[in-house]
Design goal:
By secondary structure, the protein is α/β, with parallel strands linked by helices. 41% of the residues lie in helices and 13% in strands.
Length: 224
């Protein structure tokens, strides 16, 4: 894909999981463990089809999630997945060169934000443990919005907070939810290809029309 034309970029919004961090595979395993508890087996590609969707249980049949004779709500199912992922994720670090890339963007006067479907506590711990406190102007977690990506609410909330119009911002993420949310918000979009999504490229690379597809986070940032 040719180098994108971004006339004026005042802000970059990042997804967190499997974009800045390498946590994607752990979230997939957490989903898989939860599904197996209820006798549901799905391939990685199928799990990726609802990756980042906090209401994923509804997509595959909420009636299948029965605990001690009681049906779990969609949010309860997601909370269980989150708990399974927490301990694994605490041990991980951000991708190589992330700190340098973020500092380069800030040196150019570009505002930085994170919009993630991860819980606030987990994001705060990850940002602290990776020495990124104070780097981002705003961090939006799943608790900060009514509707998670691909709804644009989180992106628009972040941009309002930092006083940047959508047309002056770029959304970078690894999934269709990120691209679709950016498009709905009116930002430029960069889709990041990761090792995880190569399990089934059809799943997460057919939705949305990103302005640029990057092979890694370094290429994504260097094209802004």
């Amino acid at each position: 894909m040719a180098k994108p034309k971004f006339p004026h970029v005042s802000a970059v919004i990042f997804d967190w999981d499997d974009t800045l961090s390498e946590t994607g595979v752990l979230w997939v395993e957490a989903h898989r463990e939860k599904l197996r508890e209820h006798g549901i087996e799905l391939e990685t590609g199928a799990i990726l089809s609802f990756f980042g969707n906090i209401n994923f249980a509804e997509d595959i049949g909420l009636e299948k999630f029965i605990v001690d004779g009681e049906q779990q709500t969609s949010s309860e199912v997601f909370n269980d997945v989150t708990e399974k992922a927490k301990e694994k994720i605490k041990l991980l670090r951000v991708r190589a060169h992330i700190v340098e890339l973020l500092k380069d963007l800030k040196s150019r006067g570009i505002r930085l934000a994170v919009v993630s479907s991860s819980p606030r506590e987990l994001l705060r711990e990850s940002i602290h443990d990776n020495g990124l406190e104070g780097v981002f102007d705003i961090v939006i977690s799943v608790e900060d919005v009514r509707f998670a990506k691909p709804n644009p609410e989180g992106i628009l909330k972040a941009l309002t907070s930092i006083h940047v119009p959508p047309e002056d911002a770029v959304m970078i993420g690894d999934s269709s939810s990120d691209v679709l949310a950016g498009e709905a918000a009116g930002t430029y979009t960069i889709r990041l290809m990761t090792e995880l999504h190569q399990h089934d490229p059809k799943v997460n690379y057919m939705q949305g029309n990103p302005d640029f597809i990057a092979r890694n986070i370094t290429e994504a940032v260097h094209n802004i």
